[in-house]
Amino acid sequence: MKPPLLLLHGAVGASAQLKPLAQQLNVKFDVHTLDFPGHGGTPFPEIPFSIALFADAVRDYIRTKGLGHPAIFGYSMGGYVAMYLARHFPAMVGNVITLGAKFHWDPDVAARELKMLDPVVIETKVPAFAASLAQLHAPNDWKEVLKRTRFMLEEMGRHNPLQPGDYADVKSPSLLMLGDRDKMAGMEETVNVYKHLPVAQFAVLPGTPHPIEQAPYDLISTLIVRFCTAMEGRE
Length: 235
Fold this sequence. Notes:
Layout: E1 4-8, H1 19-25, E2 30-34, H2 51-65, E3 71-75, H3 77-88, E4 96-99, H4 107-115, H5 119-125, H6 127-137, H7 142-158, E5 174-179, H8 187-196, E6 200-205, H9 217-234
Parallel strand pairs: 1-2, 1-3, 3-4, 4-5, 5-6
């Protein structure tokens, strides 16, 4: 029986973006994906977007599918959610693998991120991105997804859900991956988290920017398999 692996998408993204990676990993894992509330056409929640809300959705999925404590791969915000789960619900999480996760949040960081989530600017300057967001989230309004995400990031800027001291309490073996061309997740913040985790590895992906569509799926899947295999040997 193949071990379970749950893939989590990034902010304003959807599980459909992770299909190429899932196909690479299906050989070795029982791969699962889900859409966070309000993403990928799922109904908008009655409460605001938050890391805690998304973590609860993952917990519900794990329980419903009977996955036990699966390994979790999270891209960008999905990686943050995975680490949040490992910190606060360790019994539900096996290995944690992140790619391009942004861990450091303060008001200045949030303000920079908000500028990139302006729907008017996106429609005007990057209409192809607007079209892809509309397709990803249909029948939901992609602008509403951005609006709710902007609110969440503002709140994270005021209070980062994961504080520096939290990482020392993460028991899950963790692999942090970062593209060397990533302009959103920083090298310093990623290395800082890596240094605080009790059991961790760090990988830099050459020639790799932040967007998941430009990720080297072969390399990522190889690193995930190698890491999870090594952690089995550690046990």
